[in-house]
Amino acid sequence: MTARTTPGPRERLLDAARQLTYTQGMGVGIDAILKSANVARRSLYEHFGGKDGLITEVLRRTAVVDVAAYRTTMDAAGDDPRARLLAVFDRLGEVADTPAFRGCRYLAADLALADPDHPGHAVTREYREDVHQILEHELVRLEHPRPGHAADQLQLLVDGLLAVAATRPGSGPAAAARELAERVVDEGRRAPA
């Protein structure tokens, strides 16, 4: 008995859709995804019920990876909540400066998926809630006076950084976002007694 060395149709569809919806946008045609995955249309319907199901599963999978990346970035910054929060902006700046950067997948999905009941919107909401909780947790550890509000502000800065970096390459929004993030975070620092 030999083990399968190549991914099956389901995984090939997910890989192709993940790549193409990021590089070409959520409106990429299903024919392009099928061609890239080298699978028959029937496989799409068998595994996902159609393009909406495929996009939703791509968003779900990437959200798990991206939320883990936030945690990994913060863990690499050590135990200090301030350093952990600001490390997010440093890392996003690095990501935004790569040639392959095309913006925030979740913002792009929300803008492109016109149907408010599209199941992808539930995934993007959950992703944002997870990121918010991660940020708020660190702000609570920092004893910020308004951790929920500050997490909202930091999340707005993250979204803005990613949107500006995608629409105005080379404009360097990460430094400005980090500077504003420092102000939000430092509002919670205790004044010396």
From TrEMBL:
Keywords: DNA-binding, Transcription, Transcription regulation. The keyword Amino-acid biosynthesis does not apply. Residues 7-66 form the HTH tetR-type domain. Pfam families: TetR_N (PF00440). Residues 29-48 bind DNA. SUPFAM superfamilies: Homeodomain-like, Tetracyclin repressor-like, C-terminal domain. It comes from the Bacteria. The keyword Transcription regulation applies. Gene3D superfamilies: Tetracycline Repressor, domain 2 (1.10.357.10). This is TetR/AcrR family transcriptional regulator. It comes from Streptodolium elevatio.
